[in-house]
């Protein structure tokens, strides 16, 4: 193939927004009816449509996925001095709300089959907590890049120790585990509609639950915890976390095409897999049997010796070609912010750190053209020193 100069090459983004065009119709509806507020018909409809899509009793639309996690912790009564367990291999937004509540995060390593929370590390952490008489107030389980964690094993442990589970499904809307939609396993599920997620409202989130009572408490907290009174009266701390009716309109149009978006991302994954899986030292994030990943991001891992180059070298080659690729999340237990926090390793091996050091997320947008994807594929092959 002819290698053109990079200068004129358009930038290939990791996971850009993908609009349908219909968003503008819903936005116009909001303007025409003057529902320019964090309440309104689009908000109500978006909540109902998302709850129906994942098959739960109700949902609350909020301003971000982070806000949704914060509300979940708040609803579970997490407070200063409490302990909360959290997957280590994740984006910082999974763990920051633990600090907002003044609680102590304990990080749980990944296991190799899903790259998500290791049930055996979780079990050791629970045994230790029980021994000192201080069980966690919640376990936050992340479904990385769309892949569900080992829910049966994790939930069995949470039930055994009677600890509530929050499912951070920010990256896994449209995925499923044994046929059940991602985000519906815990006491709370949370989704994100940030600009880079599988569907977006530019910024936004959702918290779902099967308890209407708990959801109405969430609604109360998310609207400044205003007591029922004729004047403004408040007896507990609240937040301003509701989603704008304009943005909910965007979300409704996006949700209508969620299955198409999932299929497109899975096609992107399949094309990478077909073209690159023969390369020595390059492996793909697995999809556990009986799970269905939305393949939000295609993640690979590089064995430097076999591949002939490090993941860092590959990342720089991509940057030079104006391709946005990213390292796998840096585990929370390696972050300066969480330096003091306990960490439970999968076994005598730490699984998440090597994934961070060798892992790369490839451009995976549902609007990635075949031509652009070929540029990414050729860049990987070039670094692997395969003739293209
Ligand atoms: C994006 C993301 C969040 C936070 O969502 P925001 O809407 O950006 O606040 C939380 N957890 C994970 C795993 C995410 O990827």
Automatic annotation (TrEMBL):
The modification N6-(pyridoxal phosphate)lysine is found at residue 197. Keywords: Aminotransferase, Pyridoxal phosphate, Transferase. GO terms for biological process: polysaccharide biosynthetic process. This is Aminotransferase class I/II-fold pyridoxal phosphate-dependent enzyme. Belongs to the DegT/DnrJ/EryC1 family. It holds the Pfam family DegT_DnrJ_EryC1. Its cofactor is pyridoxal 5'-phosphate. One of its GO terms (molecular function) is transaminase activity. It comes from Halalkalibacter suaedae. The active site is at residue 197. It comes from the Bacteria.
